[in-house]
Amino acid sequence: MKLTTGLAPLVAIMLLAGCSVTPQREAVVDAPIASCPPAPAVECPVCEARACPGAPVVERVVEKRVEVPTRVPATAGELGLTVIGAVEWATLEPPGLRLEARIDTGTETTSIHAENVRQLEKDGKRYVQFELLDPASGEIHPVDAELVRRINVKKGESLIERRYVVRLWVAVGEERSLIEVSLSNRPDFEYPLIIGRNFLTDVAIVDVSQRHLLD
């Protein structure tokens, strides 16, 4: 009991001494918090402004029909005959050849320029074989036609031309007739076809001051 009581003061002293020798902890100073670097500014790309599309253009095709009036040939005289000019277009059949013709009231028989004219026989009948030239295209049209007769045509004071006469369909405007046509060799004439009175009588009246009155 005496030992225990004597140690008490000693323990107290040692505790006090221990408190004085124990190093004190330094106060911890909070370190400044590092701030985040500022975020780089990102600029949005400027988009090109697009214009609104315009209204679609609708093309409208407008069809307009124009009626072309048909020229009606003039008529004259008590019989109401068609008036034609001194020059008209005519068609010969055969061969369906279209020619510019001279209308001549002073000539009795219609005539046409023909080449390589020759007479031949077929089945006991006399025929004439000849060639007609298309001045527009230069095409040659061979024709065979039955011989009707022969005529003598006086050219000048003493020269006489002997011609063959055949029948051909001749059409001028709406008039079409099967008439006699004499075959002549006159390449120097301006018009290869001369239409005479054997076509014109009771069919047409000629106005010599006009040309191409028919369609």
Textual characterization of the structure:
By secondary structure, the chain is mostly beta strands. It has 2 helices and 12 strands, in the order H-E-E-E-E-E-E-E-E-E-E-E-H-E. It has a domain at 109-207: Acid Proteases (Cathepsin D, subunit A, domain 1), CATH 2.40.70.10. It has a 6-stranded mixed β-barrel with strand order 3-4-11-5-10-9. The protein has a 3-stranded mixed sheet with strand order 1-2-12, with no helix packed on it. The protein is elongated.
Ranges where pLDDT stays below 50 over 5 or more residues in a row are none
The level of helicity is 10-25%
How many angstroms does the end-to-end distance come to? 168 Å
- Broad shape: elongated
CATH class of the domain at 109-207: Mainly Beta
If helices are DSSP runs of H or I spanning 4 or more residues, what is the number of helices?
2
Largest beta sheet: strand ordering: 3-4-11-5-10-9
A few lines on this structure:
It comes from Parahaliea mediterranea. With 215 residues, the protein is mostly beta strands. The chain is 11% helix and 41% strand.
List keywords for this structure.
215 residues, mainly beta, Cathepsin D, subunit A, domain 1, six-stranded mixed barrel, three-stranded mixed β-sheet, 12 strands, 11% helix, elongated
Element layout with pairings:
Layout: H1 2-21, E1 75-76, E2 81-85, E3 87-93, E4 97-103, E5 110-113, E6 115-122, E7 125-133, E8 140-155, E9 159-172, E10 175-184, E11 193-195, H2 197-200, E12 204-207
Parallel strand pairs: 2-12, 4-11, 5-10
Antiparallel strand pairs: 1-2, 3-4, 3-9, 5-11, 6-7, 7-8, 8-9, 9-10
